[in-house]
Design a protein that fits this description.
With 298 residues, the chain is mostly helical. Helix content is 73%, strand content 0%.
Length: 298
């Protein structure tokens, strides 16, 4: 099962790598040092479950490194290979421990949701989606904190779920895939959902990263082919991001479970704060346009 998952992700990673470096050579683009640092920092925290798109977007806007219209494709491609490397690393380190039905079901489900959600974006007010998700994340963080403080019962050591909860998790990942198109990352919702269901939080990482890798593979290849990205930033983020996720993955694997549980709460509250801010800004500005698609964490 592990080999069956690694082969398509590995082939997609090789294909995306060849496409990217061929385009970089054609453009004679040298990696931006700032891009390397940005990729290293954001992908390190992405592998810890915090996400990479929101902080990357904020920095690119703050520094005005690329035009706004090029931010979404630049991030998708720049974080593409680190996300795929992240998936492979987590599958090798932890994937063999996760229930295969849950792992494969969630990965396929989020891919299907991502494909279905693309045409729905123009029909929905983005800020409403973001506001609902932000509130849900805050409630989930409160529930998880109560569990850690032994104020309510909770699990946290399982490697799989009962059939009913497995189905719920697969359906939820389908919804998470749709929400990716609205700029809502899948990392925080998946992490808190599986943790509250009783799974070891560390085992959520191969599910999150594996699903995200499938979503970015197609999108990244499309944007490379169109050449509508800043290749200096992209190649810098790639060079900095890939080794960073390896270091972060080893930290996650060895981190004490109690510490990781509190990290989950920090991650979820951070994601909720970002989502709430975007929702309020979107409502204020009356912005209904499609946001940056999030990968891992949003």
């Amino acid at each position: 099962m592990l080999i069956a998952l690694l082969i398509p992700i590995g082939l997609a990673t090789v294909g995306l790598t060849i496409m990217l470096f061929r385009a970089v050579i054609e453009r004679r683009a040298s990696p931006s040092l700032e891009g390397v640092i940005l990729g290293a920092i954001t992908n390190f925290f992405d592998a810890l479950g915090i996400g990479s798109f929101a902080p990357s977007t904020a920095w690119l806007k703050f520094r005005k490194l690329v035009p706004d219209r090029l931010i979404p494709p630049t991030l998708l491609v720049g974080h593409g290979l680190p996300t795929m490397a992240e998936a492979i690393i987590f599958l090798v380190l932890l994937g063999v421990i996760v229930d295969p039905m849950l792992l494969v079901g969630c990965m396929i489900s989020i891919l299907m949701g991502g494909l279905l959600g693309a045409p729905l974006v123009s029909r929905t007010r983005v800020w409403i989606i973001q506001l609902v998700v932000a509130i849900a994340l805050i409630v989930a963080a409160m529930a998880y904190a109560a569990t850690n403080l032994h104020m309510m019962p909770g699990g946290g050591t399982a490697s799989g779920l009962p059939m009913t909860l497995t189905i719920v998790a697969i359906v939820a990942n389908f919804i998470f895939g749709i929400l990716l198109n609205y700029g809502v990352g899948n990392y925080a919702p998946t992490l808190v959902m599986l943790s509250l269901m009783g799974m070891d939080p560390r085992l959520a990482f191969p599910i999150m990263a594996g699903g995200a890798s499938l979503v970015v593979a197609g999108g990244g290849a499309r944007h490379i082919a169109l050449r509508q990205i800043d290749f200096r930033i992209v190649i810098g983020m790639t060079i900095g991001g890939v080794p960073a996720v390896l270091i972060a993955a080893l930290i996650v694997k060895s981190m004490p479970i109690e510490t990781l549980r509190w990290l989950v709460i920090v991650v979820v509250l951070y994601a909720a704060a970002v989502m709430l801010r975007e929702a309020l800004l979107g409502r204020k500005e009356g912005a209904d346009e499609m946001p940056v698609p999030a990968v891992g964490a949003g």
